[in-house]
From TrEMBL:
It comes from Rotaria socialis. Belongs to the serpin family. This is Serpin domain-containing protein. Transmembrane segments: none annotated. InterPro entries: Serpin_dom, Serpin_fam, Serpin_sf, Serpin_sf_1, Serpin_sf_2.
């Protein structure tokens, strides 16, 4: 996973990207971090100074022991506010127990307007869409004839198009990257190759591997929501002790008996909206 200095350095790069995005009035990119701690178990000040200084996180004290319902409502309301009401009900009542001592929440929100917007009259309201499962469903299929950065990747057997967002930032151009498997190539095989060879993703995102071409672009209008449990993923990456009753060591957070309480759950929830004028 990397040493603490390495992780802090990586996050500094992320913060730089967000600070550059702040200069763009056409794009909204927001990062928000907050800690919710049991009010009788406030973390050590050195730890709070670290997360506030390095991760721009603040802390709120809640009563998970006696009033978990109010804590869940407070956390969910904050997440909704940070994500423009896209992510709702992040936590359920069952997620917060009497022995919960700390909940760390991270939110990333993006909204951009297409540089060239799709038009209503060009949308097929009842088009066939072939899913990865082989099923065919009916979707609203947007259409655009426009020049885009286009490329092909022979290792993945995919076509690539970069759709730019409106921007007034000379340093950064945000794009929406579409990856289309070639006929006969399954989406699953593309995902597996991207997971096993991270450099392939860099090849896809590199403008040097594209050229400007006029495309007949068809893109479904859709809303996609997904939730993921990340504990097993992090364990496979080597983060094992943090989930162990006997090996968990959080002395950097607390200086008393709670220090060996393991991480119980790690949840990720995403929602994507692709519309004629913008995406979120």
């Amino acid at each position: 996973m990397g040493s603490p200095p390495m992780l802090l350095n990586r996050f500094s790069s992320i913060k730089l990207a967000f600070s550059i995005a702040d200069q763009d009035t056409q794009v909204k990119l927001k990062l928000a971090n907050r800690l919710y701690a049991q009010k009788s178990y406030k973390p050590q000040q050195d730890y709070l100074d670290l997360v506030q200084g390095s991760f721009k996180a603040d802390i709120k004290l809640e009563d998970f022991v006696n009033n978990s319902a109010a804590a869940v409502q407070t956390i969910n309301a904050w997440v909704e506010d940070q994500t423009n009401n896209l992510i709702q009900n992040l936590l359920s009542q069952n997620d917060v127990k009497r022995d919960t001592r700390l909940i760390i929440v991270n939110c990333i929100y993006f909204k951009g307007t297409w540089r060239k917007q799709f038009e209503e009259h060009s949308t097929n309201e009842n088009a066939d869409f072939h899913e990865a499962s082989g099923n065919v469903s009916k979707v609203k299929l947007m259409f655009m004839k426009e020049k885009y950065l286009y490329g092909e990747n022979k290792d993945l057997h995919v076509q690539i198009a970069h759709l730019p967002y409106k921007s007034d930032n000379a340093r950064v151009q945000f794009v929406f990257t579409v990856i289309l498997p070639q006929k006969g190539v399954s989406l699953n095989s593309v995902e597996q190759k991207l997971s096993s060879k991270p450099q392939l993703l860099q090849q896809i995102l590199n403008d040097e591997n594209t050229r400007t071409e006029e495309l007949l672009l068809y893109l479904p209008k859709f809303k996609m929501e997904a939730s993921f449990e990340l504990s097993d993923v992090l364990k496979r990456l080597g983060m094992v002790n943090a989930f162990s009753d006997s090996a968990a060591d959080f002395t950097v957070l607390y200086d008393f008996e709670i220090q060996n309480q393991p991480i119980e759950d790690l949840e990720s929830k995403t929602l994507t909206l692709i519309m004629m004028g913008s995406s979120e």
